[in-house]
């Protein structure tokens, strides 16, 4: 299949696909435009090997429980391409008897189908808004052979979205971090730290779209530029583990070294030597994490690493002294016309002047907004460093040991079995102040239902700005010489674990000019107060197991007291009412005059004269 992602002249939409549920074959592709397989027709059920899970992603588990809903998902790139494919699927069901044209394979009372868009750009909410309207119109036809409306959708989307820049409000349309803060409250910061540590996070939910908000909403530039390498997996374990020792300097005549102390390097290279990406001498599926941490995205392609673009300057002037122990001596150059976004020399992502987005979803760390049951092998795949994946199937609950953390959305609960990881994610006092600051501003600005979420403070953009400030301050503190005191407010165990992650090493291995203007230190650092003690106590009661038990016992006791009080009140009230009624009756009886006797009274005796 042709490498569609490399042709920038084409529109952002790759395919319009209809997936249906067959009573014998299960989920299958019924229509695709343009055809998924070039040599097949629009109604072909055949799929590229890389997209064999597409039917199960577009029509998720439990879809029969909803009249209609939407799900987001990611597909791996096809051969010859290097970028993630973003999917948005709107699924509905209709009664079979309502169809004008009922095909022979319709044997059930209801018909389930989904219409999905496969795009090369992550415009989730924008695509969803357009797709919902077309899906509704497609079902209103009550004749699924009428596919002209789907072809018109493909042409309309590509004409209207062609040349759309991945900046501005259209990227975040339909994604509200306010919902995340309102639902998880202080725990939203714990989820944020979990992903920074690149842990295996499974989000169990009935609302699959919420995973996208959790993963991407609150991190600067993550949706626009940080997900291009987030779905590099294969249906079978076919990754080639490649250890990269150096970076090709054919275009940049600069010495490069990683921030991690070199161990078992390929040799003591002198300054000015030309290095290049190359596979290790032995290939093993049991690759160590350190091998992934220096892996370049281009080595995942069949053709091997690619050389730097020819328009890159052959030499860059030194902007600072190269001293032992200093990070990579590479200064990102400003790119005019792109808002200061430049290609990361190590991460391969489009970065701003602060080095964001961090290279989290790269090198085998997956972001899967929805994971089908057929993809369960990814949980234990040795080629997958970690993942943030949303799941709806209850069978995933039996695989708790394959995840570092499980986020249960409906209960707003985070389950972490490892005590060391729980210690790393324990929020410091400064963290609690930051989280409480967010929660208060979000909850206190909800009085006007017409203006809810439209203001600055407590709004979506405001929340993203706060998390960006938090991340900038964390990164700036890590660069200081006496960083231990500054980083203590973020949690020493967390910082120690974060500094050995892939995303930190990639970020630290380069110079970022924007960081010079960032003030180091936690945004909410400061002396302790009585309010901090109350905040800590409240957080402990709400999140610790013992606190939950105490809280539940208090709720049960208070509920019992209330119920007992009501029962006693009703009994006493009933007794008083009866007594009052009896007393009223007795007093009314006394107040009535004595009734006249109807019996004959004897005459009084008279004296008889003698």
UniProtKB/TrEMBL annotation:
Residues 14-518 form the UDENN domain. GO terms for cellular component: cytoplasm. Residues 260-271 have a biased composition (Polar residues). Residues 258-336 are annotated as: Disordered. PROSITE patterns: DENN. PANTHER family: LATE SECRETORY PATHWAY PROTEIN AVL9 HOMOLOG, LATE SECRETORY PATHWAY PROTEIN AVL9-RELATED. Belongs to the AVL9 family. This is UDENN domain-containing protein. The gene is AVL9.
